[in-house]
Design a protein that fits this description.
2 domains; 23% strand; five-stranded parallel beta sheet; 521 residues; six-stranded mixed beta sheet; 25 strands; alpha/beta; Rossmann fold; TIM Barrel
Length: 521
């Protein structure tokens, strides 16, 4: 018997395309639910209201042995007495649970459906048997999370009861993406099927490490000290230049070896309108050109992102940008255009590369010592390694603390972790976007066929028992003879975090002070 390893989704949306591309699993939009059979699809995502015939088709698919992911569109029609509706804000899952390992907070903020009895996340997540199949309920449709551009000051789990804060995206894009992949793995396992996906790191690399430098007002001595560290550790960093902050010696950056030079700003401000943002970028580009520099990457001052800025980023031809008020701790993606600007396309052209938004400066503000900062980053890196999240951090030269920077670099220099510039990672991610994969299981054999997949884009095979392997080439494989390994587990650091989404006057006061400081510059 042949069983496809493709995911079906009933309605295409920009947000769901981003989420499914993050997982790397083969997927296809299904407009005619009569196509749904357990042989053609492994899982169906029910993300639209259903007509009666469609509901019957989905129910039949599950009862015949298929798996379904319901985001509040299906189960309430089948079991209305088991479902309730309500407003969902931030949730604090039990990290000891396999699905939530290293996901301390889920910022959702939306209307959701949940199980009246049982389930996780206050009933928002659960798995219900139906016939020979199973329905997974994720009671909040993550589509709106990926399109959201609002931001707020948030506190992050820290160390020793000290929790750093930063203005970042209000909704947790990276967290929901990580959770969704784990849910799909569970639904595939329920069918005793392997989950085949395009890897999120080049070739056989176990992870990637990218280090971003925002050069804001850095003195020449501070810049030289950081560059010396980059050379001594053989670390290719990406330097986002604040050109007015280095007036008179900007040409020094043109002499850097093995580093990427990108653009930050001329004036350290991000504006709400496109014209002033354009002038800021053009002035910086002019200064860089005089110094013999050019840039394909951009990062907005203070991490602020808005649609008018994104439009200018595209017009200026940048290949990528990086702003944590749009997304953080997530994989690269193309931001979604507002509905009013969707003419023949739905996404901006420039790739967004999210980072871990907690810098040395954030940690210093809450009184964490240099030694404990190194411990903080070690914990974050280990958690990301276990969760297969990319290691992308940033630093300001004015914060110095070279020992902490060196501690971050040394922790990433594990076997298989590849150091890359932002530009190199963006270029590779575009190759990942271009290819597609189809996979199916026939008896005890796995058949892989790709179209346009670059040789650097390998595949992960996640087995129902939790083991994993990598393959490079298309072809036919015996499932029993494929080598397997178990992902190492990282010991959990369980600190109380439920209070981190409460109103904090200290954080509000600090945010106001920072805003006034930025306005005076």
């Amino acid at each position: 018997m042949s069983r496809s390893l493709t995911i079906a989704i009933l309605k295409w949306t920009p947000g769901w395309e981003i989420l499914l591309e993050w997982t790397g699993v083969p997927w296809r939009v299904v407009h005619n639910t009569s196509e749904l059979t357990p042989e053609r699809f492994a899982v169906v995502v029910v993300n639209k209201p259903l007509w009666r015939e469609e509901r019957d088709a989905v129910e039949g698919f599950v009862r015949e042995g298929g798996s379904a992911l319901d985001v509040g569109r299906f189960l309430h029609c089948i079991y209305p007495e088991k479902i309730r509706r309500g407003w969902v804000t931030s949730l604090f899952p039990d990290q000891a649970h396999q699905l939530f390992s290293h996901i301390p907070i889920l910022d959702l903020y939306g209307t959701g459906v949940s199980l009246r009895q049982g389930g996780e996340l206050r009933g928002l997540l659960g798995f219900l048997p139906m016939g020979r199949g199973v329905v997974g309920l994720l009671g909040v449709d993550p589509d709106h999370i990926l399109e959201d551009r609002s931001f707020r000051a948030k506190r992050f789990p820290g160390i020793d009861g000290r929790h750093p804060a930063e203005r970042v995206a209000r909704l947790g894009k990276g967290e929901i993406g990580l959770l969704l992949r784990r849910i799909f793995a569970r639904l595939f396992a329920e069918r005793e099927l392997p989950l085949v996906s395009r890897r999120r790191f080049p070739e056989g690399a176990e992870n990637v490490f990218c280090f971003r430098i925002d050069s804001d007002f850095g003195t020449r001595q501070q810049i030289e000290s950081l560059y010396d560290l980059a050379r001594s550790t053989s670390t290719p960093m990406t330097w986002f230049l604040h050109t007015e902050g280095h007036s008179g010696w900007l040409q020094r950056f043109a002499e850097f070896d093995g580093q990427e030079i990108a653009l930050h700003c001329a004036r350290h401000r991000t504006f709400s309108d496109g014209e002033r943002n354009r002038m800021n970028i053009e002035d910086a580009r002019t200064a860089m050109k005089v110094a013999g520099l050019s840039a394909v990457g951009y990062a907005a001052p203070n991490g602020l992102w808005n649609h008018n800025l994104a439009e200018v980023i595209d017009e200026e031809g940048f290949a990528y940008s990086s702003e944590f008020t749009l997304a953080y701790d997530a994989f690269p993606f193309r931001p979604v255009l507002p509905i009013s600007r969707r003419v023949n396309r739905h996404f901006y052209r420039a790739l967004q590369i999210p980072i871990h938004p907690v810098s040395v400066g954030n940690l210093a503000r809450v009184g964490i010592s240099d030694e404990r900062m190194i411990d903080y980053y070690r914990n974050v890196i280990d958690c990301k390694q276990q969760s297969q999240e990319s290691l992308i951090f940033y630093h300001h030269p004015t914060h110095e603390r070279w020992n902490v920077v060196e501690g971050i670099i040394n922790r990433t220099k594990k076997v298989g972790v590849r150091s890359m510039t932002f530009g190199a990672y963006a270029e590779w991610w575009k190759k990942r976007e271009e290819g597609s994969v189809s996979a199916k299981v026939v008896e005890d054999r796995l058949l892989i066929h790709s179209r346009g997949r670059d040789r650097s884009v390998w595949l992960d095979i996640l087995f129902p028992d939790g083991t994993i392997t990598q393959i490079e080439e298309d072809g036919e494989y015996n499932l029993e003879s494929l080598p397997r390994e178990t992902l190492p587990e990282t010991p959990l650091r369980v600190e109380k975090v439920n209070h981190l989404r409460n109103i904090s006057f200290t954080v509000a006061r600090r945010a106001l002070r920072d805003y006034l400081t930025r306005m005076r510059r």
